[in-house]
Structures are given as structure tokens and as C-alpha cells.
Design goal:
The protein is an alpha+beta fold and 210 residues long. It contains eight helices and four strands.
Length: 210
């Protein structure tokens, strides 16, 4: 059985949703963040970085949210959550996942953990700058969603729960992703999927959902 180790409302949300979308039997292990369970020796033996998520699939251990999503989509191709390898749609999926992880998520980490990068007296300025950058990124995504049901078009893919996960992290910011004209209805469509509502419930997440 597949096991997913994560913390609620973190980067493990997208793989968690994908697990429910593909319908694979799995065990969800919600670590105790207050107890720093992700830094415990038994967890570090699985993921030496001490971060979430971590997926155990038989003898295979996979870390990094996007990599886990791709692995699940490829090993459960019947679920249709990724286009076939080698085609133009697959290339677009890679492009979006790279943008979401390397650009949007990277700046979100700067926003939420400024103390990792700058002295305390510079943290507020950094967050203000990053929030402005993030607003521009989500505006770009919003424009790309014009006339589309899902991020790649008519096909719902692993990129959609990934975008949902990142967009919901803006829910307490001044400029929220869900306030944008295309992203707002899009996030509502993603949230309406049973796998998404089930994942949120399992992680103990209440309103606002995104």
C-alpha cells in the first residue's frame, strides 16, 4: 500500500489530492508539526531533508511534491491525470509544473519564511516585495486561464491540484488569487471535485478553503 507522509495544508496537499483522484489504496500519515515530527530520526531515514511530503510506494521512496504527483500519474495512467509522454500536452504539463514549483512556490517560501533569508528588520520589506511579485504571477496565470476549464485546457491534470494548493496559500494576503476573474471560478471548480473536498476534510482544513 502507498503511504503519504505530510503535514496539513502544506506541499503535501497536491499529492494527497492526486492519491484520491486516482483511487489508489493508501495510508495518510499526518505528522505532528508542533512536535517537529518531520525532524525525528525515523522520518529523516525516509527523507533526510526533514521536509514534507514523502511518498513510500513499495520499496520506492519519493520526495518533492511535483515528483510525487508525476509518479502517481504515470503509475496510474488509467486515471488520465497526465497527457501521454512525448506529446505537446505533456510538454505543457512539465512547463506548468516547473513554473509552479520553481517560480510561484519558491516565492511563497520567501513570503512565509523571510527569516530564513534576511535579518529580522528586513523581513517586512521582503514580504511586501514578494507579495507584489506573487500578485503578478497569479495575474499571469489568471490571464492564461481565460476561456479554459483547467490549466491545460479541457483536461484536468495533476497541475490543477498543484495550482489549487499554491493559490490557497494566498487566502490571507492582501491580493488573493481567488479574487481574480478567472482564478476565482477555476478554484471553485477544483474545490468542487470530490477528491479535493475529501482531502481537505482528511487534513482537518476548514473555511476559507482557497
Amino acid at each position: 500500500m502507498i503511504t503519504l507522509y505530510t503535514l496539513p495544508s502544506t506541499a503535501g496537499m497536491a499529492p494527497h489530492i492526486v492519491l484520491r483522484e486516482i483511487g489508489a489504496p493508501h495510508r495518510l500519515v499526518l505528522l505532528d508539526g508542533d512536535a517537529k515530527a518531520q525532524k525525528a530520526p525515523d522520518y529523516l531515514a525516509l527523507n533526510p531533508h526533514g521536509r514534507v511530503p514523502t511518498l513510500v510506494d513499495g520499496d520506492l521512496v519519493v520526495t518533492e511534491s511535483a515528483a510525487i504527483c508525476l509518479h502517481l500519474a504515470d503509475t496510474h495512467a488509467q486515471a488520465g491525470l497526465a497527457p501521454p509522454v512525448g506529446g505537446a500536452e505533456r510538454a505543457r504539463l512539465y512547463q506548468w509544473l516547473a513554473y509552479l514549483t520553481n517560480t510561484v512556490q519558491a516565492d511563497l517560501m520567501l513570503y512565509f519564511y523571510p527569516d530564513r533569508y534576511v535579518p529580522p528588520d528586513a523581513a517586512a520589506r521582503l514580504r511586501d516585495t514578494v507579495e507584489e511579485r506573487l500578485a503578478g504571477m497569479f495575474a499571469h496565470i489568471d490571464a492564461e486561464l481565460a476561456g479554459r476549464e483547467w490549466l491545460l485546457g479541457a483536461r484536468y491534470t495533476i497541475a490543477d491540484p498543484y495550482l489549487f494548493m499554491l493559490a490557497r496559500w494566498t487566502r490571507n494576503m492582501t491580493r488573493k488569487a481567488h479574487d481574480l476573474p478567472n482564478l476565482g471560478p477555476y478554484l471553485a471548480r477544483v474545490h468542487a471535485r470530490p477528491a479535493v473536498t475529501e482531502a481537505l476534510k482528511a487534513e482537518g482544513i476548514g473555511e476559507p478553503y482557497y
